[in-house]
């Protein structure tokens, strides 16, 4: 059937397929998502996403569907006030049960599993052959020592995913450190081209202590369009406009599965544990994982 005579749904899929094929061309993807005024575009997106207008919201979500596999069937509500309201949507009750085995560190979010493995002394990697250091990522010698020769896993949240993240285990949050920075895209194409990307982007270092005593550190990393992070433990939204102290002492107990906050769009979470932890079955690069599913295990 000629494209002009095709049903609207078929034309939509044709347009979506064309966009997908273009954005899969690595050089073009990198150019479109990085070689632009990243900070200015991110500020604009932060403003635009807050517009509470039914027509603007509906048109924005329709455009969003063109560029992603957005599925709102799990959302708690079906109507949204703004694009931001849709980005930070809650899910229906019971859709993300957390593995309650106390030896399991669960995934804090829906994600695609990226680079993961053993930390070699203080070196880890964003892709094979592209290392970065714990000191550059965390900026704290105490935490570097706590995770020396430990384990790390990188969790990438795409724009269409559920953007809230949860406590992967029972722990006490000791401190949050906000580190200002850039807003590079964090997709695999950018990770291959930008050295030490996670150490350059805006991020929060959430220092926690498991009930069994071990250190567990969670590092949400912002990206283009998403340089804003809401954390319940300090009751603040952290972004490029954050002023005042960059270190926030805490003493907050959370239980596995408790909501910790959300990203304003999609980004990355790096989870760091000591060396005695092992990766659970099914944890492999490129695999999709949902919040609550087993990620790491402490052997009995």
CATH fold-level label of the largest domain? Glucose Permease (Domain IIA)
How many structurally independent domains? 2
Total of DSSP H or I helical runs spanning 4+ residues? 9
> Mean pLDDT, as a whole number?
84
Amino-to-carboxy terminus distance = 62 Å
Integer-rounded radius of gyration: 19 Å
CATH architecture of the largest domain: Distorted Sandwich
- What is the H/E order? HHHHHEEEEHHEEEHHEEEEEEEEEE
Strand-pairing-aware structural class: alpha+beta
Low-confidence stretches: 1-6, 26-32
Helix content: 25-40%
Summarize the structure.
This protein is of the alpha+beta class and 300 residues long. It has helices spanning 8-23, 26-34, 38-48, 54-67, 83-87, 134-138, 141-146, 188-193, 197-200, and strands at 104-106, 111-118, 123-127, 130-133, 151-156, 164-166, 171-179, 203-210, 215-221, 228-231, 236-239, 247-254, 259-263, 268-273, 278-279, 288-289, 294-297.
Description:
The protein has an 8-stranded antiparallel β-sheet with strand order 12-7-8-9-14-5-2-16, with no helix packed on it. A 4-stranded antiparallel β-sheet has the order 6-13-10-11, with no helix packed on it. A 3-stranded antiparallel β-sheet has the order 1-17-15, with no helix packed on it. It is globular, with a radius of gyration of 19 Å. The longest helix has 16 residues, at 8-23. The chain contains 9 helices and 17 strands. The protein folds into 2 domains: 3-87, no CATH class; 104-297, Glucose Permease (Domain IIA) (Distorted Sandwich), CATH 2.70.70. Strand 10 (228-231) and strand 11 form a beta hairpin. The chain is α+β, with helices and mostly antiparallel strands and 300 residues long. Helices cover 25% and strands 29% of the residues.
């Amino acid at each position: 059937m000629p494209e002009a005579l095709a049903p609207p749904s078929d034309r939509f899929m044709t347009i979506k397929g064309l966009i997908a094929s273009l954005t899969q061309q690595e050089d073009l993807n990198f150019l479109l998502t990085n070689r632009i005024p990243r900070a200015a575009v991110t500020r604009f997106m932060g403003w635009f996403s807050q517009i509470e207008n039914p027509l603007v919201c509906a048109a924005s979500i329709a455009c969003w569907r063109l560029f992603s596999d957005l599925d709102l069937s799990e959302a708690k509500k079906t109507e949204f006030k703004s694009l931001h309201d849709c980005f930070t949507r809650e899910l229906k009750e019971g859709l993300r049960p957390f593995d309650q085995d106390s030896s399991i560190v669960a995934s804090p979010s829906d994600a695609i599993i990226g680079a993961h493995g053993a930390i070699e002394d203080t070196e880890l990697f964003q892709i094979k052959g592209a290392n970065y250091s714990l000191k550059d990522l965390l900026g704290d010698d105490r935490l570097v020592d706590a995770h020396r020769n430990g384990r790390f896993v990188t969790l990438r949240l795409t724009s269409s995913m559920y953007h809230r993240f949860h406590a992967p285990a029972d722990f006490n949050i000791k401190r949050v450190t906000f580190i200002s920075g850039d807003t590079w895209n964090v997709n695999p194409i950018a990770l291959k081209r930008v050295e030490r990307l996670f150490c350059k982007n805006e991020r929060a270092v959430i220092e926690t202590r498991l009930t069994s005593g071990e250190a567990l550190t969670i590092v949400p990393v912002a990206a283009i369009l998403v340089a804003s992070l809401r954390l319940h433990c300090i009751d603040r939204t952290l972004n490029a406009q954050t002023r005042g102290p960059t270190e926030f002492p805490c003493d907050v107990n959370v239980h596995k599965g408790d909501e910790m906050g959300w990203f304003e769009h999609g980004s990355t979470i790096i989870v760091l544990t000591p060396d005695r932890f092992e990766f659970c079955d099914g944890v492999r690069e490129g695999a999709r994982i949902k919040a609550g599913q087993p990620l790491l295990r402490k052997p009995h």
